[in-house]
Structure formats: C-alpha cells, structure tokens
C-alpha cells in the first residue's frame, strides 16, 4: 500500500476572552501533569501557543432562547 492521504477536519470555535482563558488554564494543568509524569509536553505546548495567538474578530452576537425551544 502506497502513502495514505488523510484529510484533516478543522474546527472553528467562537470563544470570548473568558472561555479562552479557561482553555489555556486547563491546558497548562495538563502540561504540568505531563511534566510530573516525565512525558513530553510538545503537543500541549503547541496547542497553548495556538489558542493564545488565535486570530481575533469582532462579531455581533444576538442572544436567543434557541435551546429553550428544543425542550
């Protein structure tokens, strides 16, 4: 079997600064745990950088009760 080409799916998340901070803190906790277990932290380090340097856009958010209608 020759080289297999796999397509990667991208996911875009809409986060406010508070949500972004929670994710970075959680990743930092994971990084600390990996250091304590003598495991490599490179993937987590890269993700922390990507989340902290994510492109910022101003968007207009309209509050709705969409979830309440589903119940």
Structural commentary:
The chain is mainly alpha-helical. It is built from three helices and no strands. The chain has helices at 17-36, 42-52, 66-70. Helix 1 runs antiparallel to helix 2. The longest helix has 20 residues, at 17-36. It is extended and about 45 Å long.
Keywords:
71 residues, mainly alpha
Short description:
By secondary structure, this protein is mainly alpha-helical.
Characterize the overall form.
Answer: extended
What class do helices, strands and sheet pairing give?
mainly alpha
| Poorly predicted tracts of residues | none
Strand content: under 5%
Helix content: 40-55%
Structural domain tally:
1
Secondary-structure element string: HHH
Give a short account of the largest sheet.
none
Radius of gyration: 18 Å
Number of helices: 3
Report the count of strand segments: 0
**What's the rounded overall pLDDT mean?**
87
Q: Give the termini separation.
A: 50 Å
């Amino acid at each position: 079997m020759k080289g297999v080409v796999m397509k990667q799916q991208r996911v875009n998340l809409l986060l406010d600064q508070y949500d972004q901070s929670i994710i970075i803190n959680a990743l930092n906790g994971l990084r600390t745990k990996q250091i304590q277990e003598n495991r490599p932290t490179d993937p987590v380090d890269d993700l922390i950088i990507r989340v902290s340097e994510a492109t910022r856009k101003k968007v207009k958010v309209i509050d709705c009760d969409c979830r309440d209608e589903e119940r």
